[in-house]
Amino acid sequence: MALRSCDRQLDNLSRVFRALEEHLAEFPSSLTARERAAGMCGLVQRRFLLSPPLAWEYVAAYFFAFHEFAVLPRRAVAL
After folding, report:
1. CA triple 67-73-74, angle to 5 deg
2. Average pLDDT, stretch 38-45?
3. What end-to-end distance do the CA atoms of the chain give, in Å?
4. CA dihedral angle for residue 32, residue 45, residue 48, residue 55, rounded to 10 degrees
């Protein structure tokens, strides 16, 4: 993949992240995660004229960038 292509993709991602940050108040925490994601996806689709699958990928990237996950294996506890 060319460096110019990577640079463009990073620019696109940062534009989408900024747009989602600007409109974060439109997605209150009282909504379910699925409803919030659907609203964010609609925003990305309308603002950047993207297809639904690509908009979902941007919203997923946003989600993974700003949420932490515990991925350590759990120990089995003897009962």
Report:
1. 105
2. 94
3. 52
4. 70
Q: pLDDT band at residue 29, thresholds of 50, 70 and 90?
A: confident
The amino acid occupying position 75 is R
- By percentage, how much of the chain surpasses pLDDT 70? 89
Find, among 65, 66, 44, the residue nearest to 56 by Cα: 44
Model confidence at 38: pLDDT above 90: yes
Reduced 3-state DSSP string for the chain: CCHHHHHHHHHHHHHHHHHHHHCHHHCCCCCCHHHHHHHHHHHHHHHHCCCHHHHHHHHHHHHHHHCCCCCCCCCCCCC
* Displacement of CA 52 from its chain's centroid (Å): 13
Q: Which amino acid, one-letter code, is at 25?
A: A
